[in-house]
Amino acid sequence: MATIKDIAIKAGVSVTSVSRVLNRRGYLSEELINKVHQAMEELHYQPNEVARSLQKKESRIIGLILPDVSHPFFGELTRAIESYAFSRNYKLLLCNSQLDPLKEKDYLSMLKASQVDGIIMGSHTIDTEEYLHIAQPLVTIDRRISSRIPYVSSDNFEGGVLAAEKLIKKGCKQIAYIGGNVELDLLAKKRYEGFKKEIDHSKCKLHFFQTNINGFNYEEYEELAAGIFRECPEIDGIFASSDIIAAAILKEARRLNRGVPQDVKVIGYDNVQLSRIISPPLTTIGQPIKEIGEKAVDLIISQIRKERVTVETVLPVQLIERETT
Amino acid sequence: MATIKDIAIKAGVSVTSVSRVLNRRGYLSEELINKVHQAMEELHYQPNEVARSLQKKESRIIGLILPDVSHPFFGELTRAIESYAFSRNYKLLLCNSQLDPLKEKDYLSMLKASQVDGIIMGSHTIDTEEYLHIAQPLVTIDRRISSRIPYVSSDNFEGGVLAAEKLIKKGCKQIAYIGGNVELDLLAKKRYEGFKKEIDHSKCKLHFFQTNINGFNYEEYEELAAGIFRECPEIDGIFASSDIIAAAILKEARRLNRGVPQDVKVIGYDNVQLSRIISPPLTTIGQPIKEIGEKAVDLIISQIRKERVTVETVLPVQLIERETT
User: Fold this and answer.
1) Nearest-CA neighbor of A236 among A219, A253, A221?
2) CATH for B156-288?
3) Residue in B with minimal Cα distance to A75
4) How far is B54 from chain A (nearest CA, A)?
5) Which of A59, B13, B86, B103 has its CA at 20 to 30 Å from residue B219's CA atom?
6) pLDDT in tens, A89-132
7) Across residues A43-57, what is the average pLDDT?
8) Where are the domain boundaries for CATH 3.40.50.2300 in chain A?
C-alpha cells in the first residue's frame, strides 16, 4: 500500500504538504489539492478517516439536531450550517427529531457516544435535561437551556415590536397573534412578548392563538386559520410567528374572499423563500438565517479550541414589507 | 471503567441483551432500552462508537449527496431518507453540493475515505465519472450513471404523459413545457419526452423553455416566467417540471392579471407541501417522495448485505388535481 511519502514523490510536493492536504490544515491552494488528490488516485491511496479520527481524537463531524429539515426555516438553516461547516472543514450529521422525544433521546445518546466534535441543537421538544450532561461542545438555537450553554437567536422581542408597530400604523384595531405553543420553552415566545407590549400601549385589542404543542402540521395551521376567521371576523391585522403559518392565513383569507391587505393585514416571521413565492408576497420579519447558522458553527469551533465564548448571541431582525400590509 | 457485564448486572438483564441494545440488533422493547440506558448513565458508560465501528468495519452512516436541502423537494426527500434510515439504525451525513462540482468532488473523496457504509447520490452536476470508482454501496436518485449502479426514480415519462393529457382535455391549444436544463443528464428529462409525445399526437402547439444549467435560483424562475408571458402571450397551458417553477408562473400570472385557470392552466411536478400552500393550490404530478427515500435506503442496505439488487426502480406517479387546471 502506498505511503504518504509515495504520494509526495508522485505529486512532486513535500510530505508536509501532503499531510496538510490530508488533514485540511492551513492554507491549501487548489493546485496543491489537485496534485495531491491526483497522486492519491493514481496510487489508489485511501486514507482511513475513521482510524485517523481515533488517532487525532477528532471526527470533524458536527451533529445537528432539528425538529424537521423539510420545514422551510429549518431547511434554510441546515443549508447555512452545512455550507459554513464545510468551509471550516467540518461535516454534518443530520438528526431530525420529528418532535419525537424518544427519537431525539436516541440520537443524543448516539452523538454523545460517537465522538462528534460538537452538537448544534435546535430541537423543539420539552425536556432539555439530557443536554445538560454532554461532554462535547454544544450550541443551541433559539433556546436557552442553562446559563453556561451558548445559544444563538434572532432578536425575537424586537421582531414582535416591529410587527405590532406596522399593524398599528396601518390602522388595524383588532389584532391577532398566532404562534407556536408557549409551553415549549423557546425564545420565539419573546415574539409574543414584544408584540403584546406594543399592542398593550395602543388602543388596539389583542387576540391570542397558539398551535398544538406537537406543531409543524400544515393542516393544523389551516384549521386554526379557519377557526380564527370564523370566531373573530372582526380581526383586521394578524402577526403569525412563522411564514408557513402566515401562508395558511393567506390561503384561508382567499377562500373566504377576505381581501389582503384591504380587509386584513398579515405579517409573517422568518423571511424564508416561501414568503416571496406565495400570493400576495408576504410582509415578514426577516431572520438572519445565514448568520445564525454561521455563528452556531463558530461557537462550536471556538469551544473545540478551548476559547472563551459568549453565552448569548442575539442577532438583529428587520421588517421586510411586501404586499400583505 | 464499567464493562458490559457491570451494566447487565445493574440493569438486571443478560449480557446479550445489553449487547443487543448497544448494537441496536433484533427486537428491542422500550423497557429494555430504558433499563440499559439508565444503567449506562448511572455507571457513566460511554461506548466508543468510533472504536466499535473500526472493530466491526462498519460506521452505520450513510452519506447523502444532494444539490440543495433547502429546495422543497430535496428537503422532503432528505426527511424521508433520514426517517427511514433511522428506523434501520443508520445515521445520515448530509452533503449539500450546492451545484458546485468542486465541493461535490471534495465531499465524495471524503465519503470514499471515511468508510461510510453507503452513498445515496441525487446530485445534479454534470460529471458522474467520479462515482464509477466507489468501493461502497451506491444508489442514485433520478439519475442513471451506469448499467451496474442501482437507481430510483419516479415514472417521469408517465408524469409528462399525464400532464399533457390533462391540459389537452381542458382545451389548451398553445402549451408550454418549462423544465430543468436538458444538458444535465437527469431522468427528469423523460418528463419532457412523455409530455412531447402526447402533445405531438394532438393538434396543440408545443413551446419549450429550459432553466439555466446552474438551476435552483428562484429569481431566475421568475424572469423565465415573465419572459414566457411576454414573448408568447398566446400560451394557455403550462407544465412546469417542479412545483417551485410552477409557483413562479402563478406569481407572474397574478402580476399580469392573467386568470388561473381561466386564461392559463398550470401543472407542476413533485407535490411538495408548497403546492398545497400557494394560491391557487396547484395541480401537480405527485412523486412518491417517501417511497423513493425508503427504496434508496433499502437498496443501500441490501448491497451492504451482499444481496442481489435490481438496477432499475421506477415508482408510479399520479396527477393530483387542485385549482390551477
Assistant:
1) A253
2) 3.40.50.2300
3) B70
4) 7
5) B103
6) 899 999 998 878 888 888 888 888 776 899 999 987 767 788 88
7) 58
8) 59-154+289-315, 156-287
**Mean pLDDT per 10-residue run, chain B (325 residues)?**
80 85 74 85 67 60 93 96 94 89 86 85 79 88 90 96 98 94 80 96 95 78 93 96 95 94 97 92 97 97 92 97 97
User: Which residue from B minimizes the CA distance to A102?
Assistant: B30
Contacts of residues A36-44 at CB distance under 8 Å and 24 or more positions apart, as own/partner, are A36/A7, A36/A11, A37/B109, A38/A11, A39/A7, A39/A8, A39/A10, A39/A11, A40/A2, A40/A7, A42/A10, A43/A2, A43/A6, A43/A7, A43/A10, A44/A2
Q: Which residues in chain B are classed under CATH 3.40.50.2300?
A: 59-154+289-315, 156-288
Residue of A nearest to B75 (CA): A70
- B254: chain A residues, CB-CB within 8 Å: 279-280
Q: Distance, in angstroms, between A14 CA and closest chain B CA?
A: 21
A156-287 classified as CATH 3.40.50.720: no
Contact A67, A36 (CB under 8 A): no
Measured in angstroms, the CA of A260 and the nearest CA of chain B are apart by 13
pLDDT (0 to 100) of residue A213:
67
Please give the CATH number for the structural domain made up of B59-154+289-315: 3.40.50.2300
A218 contacts on B by Cβ (under 8 Å): 273, 276-277
- Using CB atoms, pick whichever of A109, A278, A281 lies closest to residue B277: A278
Average pLDDT, chain A: 89
